[in-house]
Amino acid sequence: MSASGEQELDAVFHALSDSTRRLILDELAKRDDQALFEICVRIVEEYGISLSRQAISKHLAVLEASGLVTSRREGRTKLHTSNLSAHLPRILEWMNHHTE
After folding, report:
1. H or E element: which one contains 78?
2. How many domains does the chain have?
3. Which residues span the domain enclosing 62?
4. How many CB atoms lie within 10 A of CB 29?
5. What is the mean pLDDT of residues 81-91?
6. CA angle at residue 20 from 15 to 21, to 5 degrees?
7. Could you tell me the CATH number of the domain that includes residue 31?
8. In the prediction, which pLDDT does 96 show?
9. Tens of pLDDT along 61-82?
10. Of 96, 90, 100, 98, which Cα lies nearest the Cα of 13?
11. Which of 9, 31, 25, 41 is nearest to 84 (CA)?
12. Cα dist. 22→2, 3, 16, 43, 98 in Å?
């Protein structure tokens, strides 16, 4: 794997290493195109975890930087979508390479 491919994989594994970010991905897997406020509400309702919007926003920034989440603007609202499936082949390739 190239150096840039290794860096991308590092970013993905770093993003996945945090349980809050995994919860955010779980919520986006249930329904894409969620605004920050919706994600905050779902994290509290589903998991009983109370985090500030700023904390969730920072977690979303890490997920976006890794490419696991994409976002788009709709008016004044930024909507977030899971992009985990785009990274699964690379993750599985790495795992298969290290389990043989």
Report:
1. strand 77-82
2. 1
3. 3-99
4. 11
5. 87
6. 30
7. 1.10.10.10
8. 82
9. 999 999 999 999 999 999 999 9
10. 90
11. 25
12. 26, 26, 6, 11, 23
